UniProtKB/TrEMBL annotation, chains A, B:
<dbReference type="InterPro" id="IPR036237">
    <property type="entry name" value="Xyl_isomerase-like_sf"/>
</dbReference>
<dbReference type="Pfam" id="PF01261">
    <property type="entry name" value="AP_endonuc_2"/>
</dbReference>
<dbReference type="InterPro" id="IPR050312">
    <property type="entry name" value="IolE/XylAMocC-like"/>
</dbReference>
<dbReference type="GO" id="GO:0016853">
    <property type="term" value="F:isomerase activity"/>
</dbReference>
<keyword id="KW-0413">Isomerase</keyword>
<protein>
    <submittedName>
        <fullName>Sugar phosphate isomerase/epimerase</fullName>
    </submittedName>
</protein>
<feature type="domain" description="Xylose isomerase-like TIM barrel">
    <location>
        <begin position="23"/>
        <end position="257"/>
    </location>
</feature>
<dbReference type="InterPro" id="IPR013022">
    <property type="entry name" value="Xyl_isomerase-like_TIM-brl"/>
</dbReference>
Amino acid sequence: MDRLSLNQRTTERWTVAEAVDGCVRAGLQWIGLWREPVQACGVAEAARLVAEAGLRVSSLCRGGFLTASAAGARAAALDDNRRAIDEAGTLGADCLVLVVGGLPAGSRDLTGARARVADGVAALVPYAEAAGVRLALEPMHPLYCADRGVLSTLDQALEMAAPFAPSSVGVVVDTFHVWWDPVVEAAIARAAGRIASFQVCDWITPFPADALLSRGMMGDGHIDFRHLRRLVEAAGYDGPIEVEIFNADVWAADPDEVVALMRKRYEEHVLD
Amino acid sequence: MDRLSLNQRTTERWTVAEAVDGCVRAGLQWIGLWREPVQACGVAEAARLVAEAGLRVSSLCRGGFLTASAAGARAAALDDNRRAIDEAGTLGADCLVLVVGGLPAGSRDLTGARARVADGVAALVPYAEAAGVRLALEPMHPLYCADRGVLSTLDQALEMAAPFAPSSVGVVVDTFHVWWDPVVEAAIARAAGRIASFQVCDWITPFPADALLSRGMMGDGHIDFRHLRRLVEAAGYDGPIEVEIFNADVWAADPDEVVALMRKRYEEHVLD
């Protein structure tokens, strides 16, 4: 239970201060933060709240969106990522999650978009290293390839991370994004030393009407969490296990009850 | 244009007789059929209509659904597949498409489900060979892994097909299902000799509310069709190019207009 982390989007209506309090009430030691609520709180104030509560920040979501081809949009994206790196540094986050972005409007050049992501990561690494922040490439479910993340498999993320030190560029293993992958076992083994974040939530059916809110509480869907947890542990990962759920029903529920249910399901479905 | 095939689900309201007439009116030479409307027409009658119209059957959809673990359900699935093979033989279809099935209700054992698919295919091959029918394993978009098809990548389909002669077990390359794959170029090259069917339709955004009706007309979405067509041709495939679109708006339109638009978009987006 000392590894369980609440990603604050799971309790979407909570501010940073409320989420910190909620974690303390639930006896958690970790929290995953998002930039927008952190900025609403103030980055320094968020860092103070987290530290005074005795929590640690498992991840900051999110940088990335590096697929733009126009020079101005590209420069703006890199600037925004540098700000995200600064914020992650201030918060002492274990990593800054990068959601790499989808195809630019009107483009069908997937290879080109992927190449621009690789270039963008390379451009950010020196800044991240100077700030002591680890970047975490998040392969996303192929469902989101067109409009959110052209990084579609763990193998692809590892290949993109390979030119850099594992302490500088890691990968996110999110069960929702990788569970279907026929070669996930080998990919997680290859990820040894690169796993910067392990996130859990379930794949539910029937598929919800809003594709962005299709994540379920552990146990409500089809994913074998123990199997994937054992694989990341066999690859040497012993860090926080973060629960990140985008789901209209979860968001409508009382956040304290969501956290209680998350604890229960984590024990039942993720731990041995 | 002599390679273009209308998969009859694209004009969902048409019976076999109407779809055959529609293909003739549009100057097409190929049609892809589905078992339910073929059975409604009568298999022998459907074969007669197609032959008298001078059409050829690019594929019969579909067999498969081989993931059940209960002995009775498994035997029933194999029986149904043998009937589908008989029907494909009567129709002279280029192949019988296999949609392999999702996880059984309540199961989270993806590895086990995939193993049962491999066993089921092995059990069907002698029957298919005797009937002169080529089985075509269809890797499906990972979106459908839980509830429709645990075969998620072209590489995985090729591995499953490998024990059998390419003339007995091929694979389907459906742009909708494979376009996102970071290793699709290498996988299609490896598929040389195994490509039993090439299907085209687009990936559209925002993702429609019904995940099963999320396919779009070529040109309405994000897929680079020419790139994928050139890859399958470089791998030696010169057979029909089938348009299979499940989409509420397409189904609501006049079928003749859908076929006309399909021809136009095929010229604009698939051909050179």
